[in-house]
Design a protein that fits this description.
The protein is an alpha+beta fold. It has a domain at 58-156: TolA/TonB C-terminal domain, CATH 3.30.2420. The protein contains five helices and seven strands; from the N terminus they run H-H-E-E-H-H-E-E-H-E-E-E. The strands form two sheets. Strands 1, 3, 4, 6 and 7 form a five-stranded mixed sheet that branches. Strand 3 and strand 4 (109-116) form a beta hairpin. The protein is elongated. It starts with a helix and ends with a strand. Residues 34-46 have a biased composition (Polar residues).
């Protein structure tokens, strides 16, 4: 029975040493390249680093004030800037492309991704239009500008 307190002390020290080494291992490997090919639907490495260095890196899905498109109605912007791909017109392809992106705390649209696509040509056009959007009015939580994930349906209908 005399060895029990010593045994508990040794176990606690080993556990804390293991946890500390895991934390250091995680931080040391953050800047290494991923082992697999990067996927075009995943955020870029520079964006991920930007979030690691940003003290306001939380991304909200809902906040007190959602982001707002500054230049009026976003559907009007889409109507004016979408160029329907000729191949899709010829084949009669139409539908709604769902794009998700983050409106960062500065109002910039970053990391657009197709959540539900219709056709590769329509998906690429939707991403092009979203990437070229002007800055938005950022979302706010507790009177602070925050990063907000936003989902936007982009319609492609032939008339």
């Amino acid at each position: 029975m005399r060895r029990l307190p010593f045994h508990n002390l040794v176990c606690c020290l080993l556990i804390s040493l293991f946890a500390t080494s895991c934390i250091h291992f995680h931080h040391d490997n953050e800047d290494q390249e991923p082992a697999t090919q990067p996927n075009s639907n995943q955020p870029s490495k520079s964006t991920i680093r930007e979030y690691h260095n940003d003290p306001y890196s939380d991304v909200y899905t809902v906040c007190e004030e959602m982001p707002q498109f500054r230049d009026g109605d976003v559907s009007e912007y889409l109507k004016q800037h979408i160029r329907y791909p000729a191949a899709a017109v010829e084949q009669g392809i139409q539908g709604r492309v769902i794009v998700q992106f983050i409106v960062n705390r500065f109002g910039k649209v970053i990391d657009p991704q197709v959540v539900r696509g219709v056709d590769p040509s329509l998906n690429e056009e939707a991403l092009r239009v979203v990437r070229n959007m002007p800055r938005w009015k950022p979302g706010r939580q507790r009177n602070q500008a925050v990063n907000v994930k936003y989902t936007l349906p982009i319609p492609f209908w032939l008339k």
